Amino acid sequence: MQRHRAYLCWDALAANLSDSVPTLIVFTRWPEPGRTKTRLIGTLGAERAALLQAALTARTLDAAREAAARIPGLRIQVRFDGGEPARMAGRFGDDLTYLPQGQGDLGARLATALGSAFAGGGGPVAVIGSDCPGLDSDFLVDAFEAMLPGRAVLGPALDGGYTLLGLVAPHPALFEGVPWGTAGVLAQTRNRAEEAGLAVHLLCPLADVDRPEDLSLVDDLLSELDGL
Fold it and tell me: From residue 82, how far is each of 30, 149, 196 by CA, in Å?
């Protein structure tokens, strides 16, 4: 029933966006020890922290693939930092498109990724990270169903950031003047959206894994790593 409901919603939305391709952008990093999950290195060590990054990325991409089976035409783009496309494809699967995040702070890189997706015929476009173990295909389907003209869709993170941002049209101002890496990211992004005349639709809050106290959220992944 849920899959059927998703198709009905997308049939209605497609009538308004017939020339666009729904696009999901996943922001992640190449799992290089010492350069990823740095706040967890003191607890896990550099190697295990990098392996956890890889496991979280793989889980997120699996959720994206499952969502693509439920959302007609969904295109997945993986925007990565570090590494190169061939290495990413070898590690995480060659069925996806891998592109470097580019230069600048997080806001500039997000604006570039979404702007490029829209310019390439994408829409609606959602962007997620790879640090949220609770993010699944149901969450992604709900997000795309909620994306309508004049609306910004946000998935609140429990630490004050966001786990997803979805738009039907580009709004680069949403990434300007945001205090990235702080508890004020979600609030400032909501303010930017409202200033742009967008209604804000909030999804269910989820937790990111960034700090040692978050590791209880990924006990299953850590157990798998211990078995390697």
Answer: 5, 34, 33
Q: Is 138 within 8 Å of 2 (Cβ atoms)?
A: yes
> How far apart are alpha carbons 40 and 49 in whole angstroms?
6
pLDDT tens digit sequence for 35-78: 999 999 999 999 999 999 999 999 999 999 999 999 999 999 99
pLDDT digits (tens, 9 = 90+) for 108-148: 999 999 999 999 987 899 999 999 999 999 999 999 999 99
Q: Output phi, psi for 104, to 5 deg.
A: 100, 180
Burial status of residue 148 (CB atoms within 10 A of its CB: 0-12, 13-18, 19 or more): middle
- For residue 98, the cross-strand partners are 78
